[in-house]
Structures are given as C-alpha cells and as structure tokens.
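Q: How do we represent a protein-ligand complex in a form that can be generated token by token?
A: Start from the inputs.
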Amino acid sequence: MSTQARILSILKNNNGRWISGENLSAEVNISRAAVWKHMCKLKQDGYMIESLPRKGYLLRRTSDQLLPEEIRQDLGTVFLGKKAIHHFNSLESTNTLAKELAVQGAAEGTLVLAETQTAGRGRKGRYWFSPPGEGICLSMILRPDLSPFEVPRLTLLSAVAAADSVRNHTGLTALVKWPNDLFLGQRKLAGILTEISTDMDAVNHVIVGLGLNVNTAVFPPELSGTATSLFLESGRTYSRVGLLRQFLQEFETLYQAALSQGFDSVIQRLRTMTNTIGRRVTVTLNHQTHSGTAQDIDHDGALLIMDDNGRSLRVLSGDVNFV
Ligand code: BTN
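Then emit the structure tokens for the protein with biotin bound:
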C-alpha cells in the first residue's frame, strides 16, 4: 500500500474523529511536512479534509472522483476492476486509450476511466459530451470467447446492466433504446460504444465504453432537448462511484452467465425493459432508409421491423431513430 493510501485508510478508519499530524506522521513514518503534502494531494483528489492547528486532520467527506481505490472498496466482482484501473482527470477518449492498452496486451477486466473527455466518441462519429466530474466515462477491456458476429449482443448486455444498475441505485426506470442507448422518458441518459478487434474469425478484444450522465445540470443547447441526467430527472445528485460499482457488478454477473449459458436470458430481460418495441422507427441499411414499426427483438438480439410496405426487416446491428 502506498503512503497516501495508508494515510487515507487511517483517516477513514478514524470514523469522523480528529487525528493529530504527530500521530499520523508516527504511524506512517514520514515527517509532518510530508503528511501535509499528502493531505493537499488528497484534497485535490476530491476528499474533503479539515485541518486545524491543535487538532490535526479530519476526513469530512470521501471523494466521488472515479478513483481506483474508491472503486475497489467493497467491489463485489471477480475479474472486472480487479486488475489495472486507469483513471485520468482528462483524456481524449477512454475507448481510444483502452484500445491502445488492449493492443499492448492489457488483461481482460482492465478499466479506463476519465473525469472528462476532450474527444469522447459516440456511434457514427458523434461526439459524447463529458463535462468534468459529472458523469461516468468508462471503458472496459474484454476478451470473450465469442464469434465476432455474437459481439453486438454484448452491447445489449451492457445496456441491460446499465439500466438495472440505474434502477437499483436510484429507483429511476431507465429503458433501453435498441441497441445501445438508455432513456429516461423521452431523453437519452446513457450511450454504449462497443468496438471490436478481430484476428481472422476470432475476437482479439472488445472494448465496451459507457457514457452515463449522472449529475449534469446543464447540457449545451444542441443537446438540451434530447439529453438528460439522473440529476435533471430526480433533482438530486448521486454517487458516481457507487453507481459505477453497481454497474460493474451487474455487468460481470450477466457477462459470465452469457458466456457460459448463452444470451437468452439477457435478451428476455431486454424485451421487458426496452422502449423500442411497438414504436415507429426509421433504420438505415445499405444506404437505404426504411420506415416501419419495431415488432420485437429476436433470440439473437436482432430488431424485427415491419416496414411500411409490409416487409419484415431483421436488423442485427445499426442505428434506429424514433419518428
Ligand atoms: C453513443 O451514444 O453513440 C455512445 C456513447 C458512448 C460514450 C462513451 S463515454 C466512455 C467511452 N469513451 C468514448 O469515447 N465513448 C464511450
């Protein structure tokens, strides 16, 4: 354990009581000046620490930054987040870095997190708005034993896990817009970007990126009519760390079950939590746009659409728009 982690653990175990600089420096065997420096760093990391001349230090509130040590605390997963967790205050895109790490051989379960992204990416080259400290920007490196054609089902699985974790953490009913969005009411709460690297017919790695708007109060004008956050829907703020832990746990449970028993139960759950079945939609396939009504999601996770000419369309992956 690093000195900083030891100091933090002492502060946490002190349960809201003051601890003198002298006792701290004796316990971790560094000077009082060095203790002070660590306190400054912890404050920068978002911990609310009070300091008073004759009393010492007191941890008032833990940090809600997506810090590896906070996420790991009480994380009930087997492999996800158990290896490296890379956290950045600012990064171009967590998916881009995760891809680079995966190419360099990073283990399954490696996570990349950012407080803000300067070039967060969505599907179809869209950008993902990620203001500092307000949402979850996560990318996970996976190495599933799946065929490349099965990988789009991981997007559906991620959406189910994200909707479940939002419900369990906040009580808000998020619905999945097939295949990769989470909606609260008529607005988008979260998006998933799944990127795959294959070698011949085998999957090398998959990057699942999740962007979830947690405590955002203001969206830029071009998004304000279509995007929402947990804060805007409920009027209260939520612990990003708590929600992230919950997501990781839900995702891992579904992922391990899907790899050993198939995706049937994920698809069944998805059918009960999607806002897409029964809706009028447009979908673009081979540069042609079709209008119709979404009928169902089949056992492979494909969206079944009856187009306006009475033809059945089966969409395995793609972008649908509500009309
Ligand atoms: C979409 O709505 O089209 C998908 C949005 C995915 C955004 C997340 S944020 C974390 C990860 N890094 C990225 O650059 N994109 C994904």
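Residues 230 and 236 are 8 Å apart (CA to CA). The chain has a mean pLDDT of 96.
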